């Protein structure tokens, strides 16, 4: 069963069309990734799914419900939770209070207390730093906090916007390992937006490549990883030299 179904979605900032007719589906319990260069419309897509931006056209279904144009707090309560690009932790609140902010829609106190333990198990550093201001954490620790805060909402699905942004390869790998564990252990469905195509295609089941607001390629990541054109465009592995290869390489470089 598809947990998320997006059909012909269009979003714009005034006259600037950022998402131009996107359709995609994510089955329950799976990890999907949306890859694409800067400005492709990835963040706009996620913000539209989570209700921060109203779409101009198209529809979003989550589980049994049509959530097109619903407000963000309704969408969070339904179990669709976004981890924003750039983390957006509350710098002057403690790490623990940031986590509790993630549970603001919940009324099951015992469940919240239990989940606080669970997320601190996934990210032990957040237990160590529980009483410190979140603004004092490193970039990687703030990314961990942002993911943990999303988990505190007891989500069925998490939308993760560029978790690797500005992080070292080692930290990024650590975060992806935990994301994979969360998916396997809790059955949480994920949609991960990334510019690091190599990493994302390694953990996700399904991949969508977004360019200029449109999906230009989609498929199983196992298949996408093996496709020569994907390797050239998105993984930086060149198969042929010459003018064509050169052009593609330049394009690849603009991603990083
Ligand atoms: N707040 C905004 N106002 C106007 N245009 C925007 C705004 N945010 C993004 N855009 C434009 O929308 C397009 C898609 O941006 P975005 O969704 O942020 O892309 P990505 O996340 O893939 O880098 C870009 O052309 C960008 O300049
Ligand atoms: Mg973005």
Q: Largest sheet, described in full?
A: 6 strands, mixed
Tell me how many strands there are: 10
How many domains make up the coordinates? 1
The helix-strand sequence is EEEHEEHEHHHHEHEHEEHHH
Which kinds of small molecule does this entry bind, naming each only once?
A: adenosine-5'-diphosphate, magnesium ion
CATH level 4 superfamily: P-loop containing nucleotide triphosphate hydrolases
- Helicity, in percent? 40-55%
Strand line-up in the sheet with most strands: 6-7-8-3-9-10
How many H/I helices?
11
What does this structure look like?
There is one protein chain. The C terminus is likely disordered. This protein has one domain: Rossmann fold. Helix content is 41%, strand content 25%. Strands 6-7-8-3-9-10 form a six-stranded mixed β-sheet, sandwiched between helices. The chain has a four-stranded antiparallel β-sheet with strand order 2-1-4-5, with helices on one face. The protein is built from eleven helices and ten strands. Helix 3 packs parallel to helix 6. It is an alpha/beta fold and 256 residues long. A hairpin with a 2-residue loop joins strand 9 and strand 10. The structure holds adenosine-5'-diphosphate and magnesium ion. Magnesium ion (MG) binds next to helix 1.
